[in-house]
Amino acid sequence: MKNNKMKHDSAHLSDNMQVMDIGTDDIKFFVRRSRAPGAYSRLKESIKELGLKQPIHVKDISQWSPSDRRRSDGGLFKYELICGQGRLQAFRELGWTRVPAIIVDVPEEEIVGRFLAENVMRKKLSWFEKANLVKRDVESGMDIESIRQKYFVTTGQAYKYLRILRHASDTLLGTAEIEKLSMNQAEELTSVDANAQEIVVEVMKEERLDPGQIKSLVKAAKGLQKKGVLSKSALTTSLHQIQAALKEVRGKLKVIRLHWTLGPYNLRRLLNENQRLTKGLDAQGVDYSDFMDTISEEEN
Questions:
Q1: pLDDT tens by residue, the chain, 300 residues
Q2: In the chain, where the domains are located
Q3: In sequence order, what E strands does 31-140 have?
Q4: 53, 205, 234, 279: which has the highest count of C-beta atoms within 10 A?
């Protein structure tokens, strides 16, 4: 059914636009976009049941330098996706290794135009998607003033986009890990080198940390790197030490709040007589012995 459907759709193509089956792993995303879960699930199910109604469009990049075509596994991309990210992504997730595609030869500015035409009207671009478009236009020779007008960004934002992408780890860019962060978080992460970035992200994922904690992780990574001992295990240990210290501080703050709210003598009375309170503090690891000692000294 899938092959028949493709033959039917191919009949509407011009003579110079032939459909070819190409390897899904040979295709480099132009700009990886986040997908709306509901719409994407329906697209994926439709492709699974009915096949691909419309081929994706790609550009042959085999003449590019190897450094610009490098995959995260060390291999080389042969094509760059122009349009059809959802379709390509569905093929990959379904485990299908080849996808019908039309190979077109278009200039760089037209690739950006096609991407914008296909995507901008659907959903507001993320900072990461806009950053990649800005980078592409700068590399093609567009000046910053033209970029400001085209994407409605400030000069500072344009340079921040370029700075983040220039310093970001190739591995994190390839797996879209950078895209999961806010622009400010990505800027914080890329203030360290590629190896440190990857260690920070690995620790974040393994410890299930919120991206909001990236600043403290990067700071800890810089400290370890300065000592020449940065590794995933070292950063994880440092993180646990920070968490333990914060827990102790929070515990003391809880008792201080009680101290100031109730007064020292009422607090001691509560601690001495209310087992539920002491058990609750003990369960959270709150050490209140210093306060008891201080109150005793004041009485003497």
A1: 344 344 434 434 444 567 889 999 999 887 666 666 777 888 888 888 878 878 898 988 888 888 888 888 888 999 988 888 889 989 999 999 999 998 887 776 666 666 666 655 555 678 888 898 888 888 888 898 888 887 778 888 899 999 999 999 988 887 778 888 999 999 999 999 999 999 999 999 998 888 888 988 999 999 999 999 999 999 999 888 877 766 665 666 566 665 556 555 666 666 666 676 666 666 655 566 655 555 455 555
A2: 1-107, 124-167, 247-299
A3: 56-60, 79-83, 98-103
A4: 234
Specify the fold of 1-107. Answer: 3.90.1530
This prediction has a pTM of: 0.52
In whole angstroms, what is the distance from residue 133 CA to residue 152 CA?
A: 13
Residue whose C-alpha is closest to residue 133's, from 114, 156, 155 = 114
Q: Which whole-number Å values give the CA distances from 300 to 191, 223, 259, 288, in the listed order?
A: 55, 46, 19, 19
- Enter the tokens of residue 89: 């992504």
Interatomic CA distance for residues 123 and 143, integer angstroms: 26
Q: How many whole angstroms separate alpha carbon 119 and alpha carbon 125?
A: 8
- Six token digits for residue 127: 């900072």
Integer Cα distance of 37 and 212 in angstroms = 24
Beta bridge partners of 99: 22
